[in-house]
Amino acid sequence: MRALNRVIVPELLDSLSPTDPRAIRSRKDLSWIDFFLGNSRWVVRQLERQNPAPARILEIGAGEGALCRKINASLPCATVTGLDLVGRPGHLPAAIHWRSGDFFETLPHFEADVCVGSLILHHFSDGTLRKLGTRLHSFRTIAFCEPFRSRLPLVLSALPSLFMGEVTRHDMPVSIRAGFRLGELPALLGLDSKNWDLSESCHWRGSLRLIASRL
Predict the structure, then answer these.
(1) Which residues pair with 148 in a beta bridge?
(2) Is 119 left (phi over 0), alpha (psi -120 to 50) or beta?
(3) Is 163 inside any structural domain?
(4) Deepest in the core among 25, 49, 179, 190, taking most CB within 10 A?
(5) What are the tens digits of pLDDT across the range 97-124?
(6) Is the residue at 33 inside a domain?
(7) Are 136 and 115 a contacting pair, CB within 8 Å?
(8) pLDDT per residue as tens digits for the range 137-146
């Protein structure tokens, strides 16, 4: 069976105000999707296994700060910072730092041991990902969870449609088609195996996971 080509289509959530009821419903849906995929649990496990333990952790595309909160709870001695276009969520613990703005512009001015992200890279074109890769080489470790571009996740995305809002029903298959196959992300981000210890995996539920540590 022929593999799906990568196609990027704007997601509805990206065009909505954070206070729009449809956006609020979609963020609730995304928390359930994260639980089903296990993305946040995987990121936290990777951080807990780091030796030495990371002192400074940065999340790009931090959104509502859910992953930042889980990292902070698991690694309270680390400095956790979220980067996103939106302002600081009001419910974040005071210990979590926040920077609003385009992370392509702010990343060069940040120093941290680890950079993580969940369901953020698939929004960007191949060319933009290559540009982002040049800004990630200063980190000791990077870890990302992205949609696995495959027919089975596409089929699974239709099953919970009765329980999801209209925005999520549109955005789920769109994000899968914009996702990645094994080997694509390291190539796009310029992660050479001569300089990075790379580990990739994909899960039938629809998650592709990449962790890379500089040699």
Answers:
(1) 180
(2) left
(3) yes
(4) 179
(5) 999 888 888 887 888 999 999 999 999 9
(6) yes
(7) yes
(8) 889 999 999 9
Note the pTM of the prediction, 2 decimals. 0.92
pLDDT given at position 19: 84
User: Confidence band (pLDDT; 50, 70, 90) for 43?
Assistant: very high
Task: Tell me if 5 is assigned to some domain.
Answer: no
Answer yes or no: is 103 within a domain.
Answer: yes
**Do residues 33 and 207 touch, judged by C-beta distance below 8 A?**
no
Beta bridge partners of 81: 58, 97
Pairwise CA distance, residues 75 & 163, whole Å: 34
Q: Give me the CATH number covering residue 158.
A: 3.40.50.150
Count of domains for the chain: 1
What is the number of alpha carbons within 13 Å of residue 215 lying toward its C-beta?
9
Residue 154's domain spans which residues?
A: 16-214
